[in-house]
Design brief:
The chain is an alpha/beta fold. α11 links the parallel β5 and β6. α2 crosses α7 and α4 crosses α5. The protein is globular and about 70 Å long.
């Protein structure tokens, strides 16, 4: 930010965010679907105050999410694939963001007291929460996984562990990109159960994608793989937990084994890129000890765990993370 206007724009940025998340929580987009309704009809269907519903619908139309024709509202054509259920739907991730709102709202007390905010969105809280979280991760992975699988060279690898692979979308993409590759998704039992369900959508690779229920924070890993992929996991862990996990991965992989860590890494001073330092705050309010880590410290921990070489690589396929490739 360079000007007062920049400061004010960012400071009130939550106005737009809150309008979208309220619409998601009230199921406005689900009610509309591919149809057009008046504000009065929408208000009745979502059980809301007519005045409040109309003002919110007008705002959403002004933002370009809805189209208003006369007194009727419908989802804007360009946004329909993302605001209705389907392969390009963003609703799962938006519901996740709505759940995160409550923890971010308590950031002041979290910073003051040093404890994460109470959360209902943790995948460790039970089957319902695990399902909601895993479906949200699926929504994000559907768009990115094919490109990630295409830009990572797994030629000659026989068995890949997708650690914390949740919905299995990356696993299926790796299997499709590499016809001779078996992929085992390692995740918590409740998450793995949802992942198995999701992977029925990939019958062409169903015989090469399997799930292994385990806790990455404490359980040993399957020992017959020659590569491992860890995407967006370590930011939820403490430094000690990251080091321990790297050690278990190193123990599970054979000589010349490949370990790919995909993360939103920071620079050496942990201030840039801004998306990474902001995400560290997300971990502050939602986890006891998580944060984003720098490429330098992550590479050092990998070498100490037993990996001989580490290479940093930018991702062209996905803007939300880069890679460190570690080899034994």
């Amino acid at each position: 930010m360079k000007t007062r206007d920049d400061l004010m724009r960012v400071s009130r940025g939550y106005w737009e965010s809150r309008a979208i998340l309220t619409a998601v929580e009230l199921e406005i987009f689900t009610v509309l679907g591919r149809r057009k309704f008046s504000a009065k009809v929408v208000a009745k269907r979502i059980g809301a105050d007519p005045r409040g519903a109309e003002l919110l619908l007008d705002c959403l139309a002004g933002m370009g999410l809805l189209t208003k024709t006369g007194t009727g509202y419908s989802i804007a054509k360009a946004m329909a694939p993302h605001l209705t259920e389907g392969p390009e739907s963003a609703l799962g991730m938006l519901r996740h963001h709505a759940a995160l709102w409550r923890t971010w709202d308590r950031m002041t007390e979290v910073v003051r007291e040093g404890r994460p905010a109470p959360s209902r969105s943790s995948f460790r809280r039970g089957p319902a929460e695990a399902r909601a979280f895993t479906m949200a991760m699926r929504a994000g992975a559907l768009r990115l996984a094919p490109g990630v699988a295409a830009e990572l060279n797994l030629k000659g690898r026989k068995h890949l562990l997708d650690l914390g692979g949740g919905p299995g979308v990356y696993a299926a993409s790796f299997a499709r990109e590499n016809p001779g590759l078996r992929v085992t998704v390692v995740d918590l039992p409740d998450v793995a159960e949802v992942g198995r369900e999701i992977c029925r959508e990939y019958p062409d690779v169903a015989d090469r994608v399997t799930f292994h229920a385990a806790d990455l924070d404490q359980d040993d890993l399957p020992a017959d793989a020659d590569a491992a992929f860890l995407s967006h996991v370590i930011h939820g862990q403490s430094e000690d937990e990251v080091r321990a996990l790297f050690g278990r991965v190193a123990a599970a992989l054979p000589g010349k084994g490949l370990f790919i860590v995909r993360e939103l890494f920071t620079g050496p001073d942990r201030t840039t890129p801004p998306s990474a330092s902001l995400f560290a705050l997300n971990m502050l309010v939602n986890t006891p000890a998580g944060r984003t880590y720098s490429t330098r410290e992550t590479a050092a921990w990998l070498k100490k765990a037993g990996f001989a070489t580490t290479t940093f690589r930018r991702s062209k396929a996905a803007p939300d993370a880069d890679y460190i490739l570690a080899r034994k």
